[in-house]
Fold this sequence. Notes:
Low-confidence stretches: none
Distance between the termini: 35 Å
Order of helices and strands: EHEHEHEHEHEHEHHEHH
Strand order of the largest sheet: 1-2-3-4-5-6-7-8
Bound molecules: NADP nicotinamide-adenine-dinucleotide phosphate
Number of strands: 8
Structural class: alpha/beta
Strand content: 5-15%
Largest sheet: 8 strands, parallel
CATH class of the domain at 12-184: Alpha Beta
Shape: globular
Helix content: 40-55%
Number of helices: 10
Radius of gyration: 18 Å
Amino acid sequence: MASSTSIPPLGLGTYGRTGAEGIDAIGTALEIGYRHLDTAQSYDTESTVGEAVRRSGLARADVFITTKVADTRLAPADFMPSVRQSLETIGVDQVDLLLIHWPVPEAVVPFESYMGALKEAQDAGYARLIGVSNFTIALLERAEKLLGKGALATNQVEIHPWLQVPTLRDYARGAALQLTAYQPLVKGQVSSDPVLGRIAGELGTGPAAVALAFLLAEGHIVIPASASRTNLQANFDATTIILTSEHLEAIRQLDRGYRHINPAKSPRWDD
Length: 271
Ligand SMILES: NC(=O)c1ccc[n+]([C@@H]2O[C@H](COP(=O)([O-])OP(=O)(O)OC[C@H]3O[C@@H](n4cnc5c(N)ncnc54)[C@H](OP(=O)(O)O)[C@@H]3O)[C@@H](O)[C@H]2O)c1
């Protein structure tokens, strides 16, 4: 069972896992042993996540479910109704983790307003843990001032071997804040990396699993996505891979600040 304060280090990204195929893919992941599912109001996968969990026969308490309030639902009149809608769509009384998906400019919705609403959602029992996504260090510092140290369980951001965000990583370590690495495989592109390929060859695994093992060794939570049983299994098995210090050092050298997700609404990144 998920403990009250911790997030399982390996989760399943569910972006794109809609409809009957989505329910099947999420169900396969649960069969393999995944116990952490990452959805969002904007993915249209809250219902498939809920349905896959119900069909799995697992107890609700055994699966950690994260959802995210969309940047279009942060205004005071929209925030709480959107959270209640998420709970209804998933079919649960409470999510394990509720995130602000993207920060928005002050002129759209004031920071204090939506961060206060996030805390209220937790106080109302709609979420066991709260956190943020796509937050810069500057925004994390503001959040800590507003809500106190330790109030946020995670900042979910793009991290992979080609984007290691060392400044944010060091800040988060100092603030006892866990980072969740989204798009940890750069949509599968990391499979072409020759260094990851060389290490994978030595360990008898695949480059994607090596990338995940590296991120886990760095202390991050990872949420890779896949619709294939083989890849779901390989990614799940990444938790058992032990990389040597030479491997870790070689992968650290791969950081080249390559940001794959950078829409116009992104904050001004500070790492
Ligand atoms: N907070 C945010 O703003 C944000 C933004 C983006 C993503 N996310 C979250 O992060 C999750 C993961 O990101 P993502 O889905 O964009 O990309 P990703 O996990 O980096 O990559 C998924 C892709 O990699 C392939 N893949 C998976 N395992 C593989 C393996 N072992 N070997 C080779 N290829 C493999 C998959 O293909 P197959 O299906 O063929 O395996 C799929 O095309 C999302 O689903 C979502 O939950 C959050």
